[in-house]
Fold this protein.
Amino acid sequence: METKLRLTETQLKQVEEQRDDLAQRKLSWATTEKKMEEEKKHLEDLCLHMKNKSRGFFSRRRGETEDRDVALQKMISKMQEKEMRKKAKDARNTSSEKMEEASGDSAPAGQQ
């Protein structure tokens, strides 16, 4: 009976240690997430500032009238568009190279 009680107490201590460890990890993740959100906002502000700065003196300053979220969304969609165009171009290039290889392999040996 006494050994069973000791075993139960040991298991209880282990569970409590695990709970404390998980609570500490959760706190650590929460602070990391908060720090990353702050860094993200800082980078977004920097991007918006650089975009407005690069417009030049005579260009219309939309940045002052546009909502911050709208401007960021436009920048993100423009970046995604460029990435999609690049992927499509790469896909076309690879498919045309494969077609050239396939046609080159099927040609007689003297014509290559």
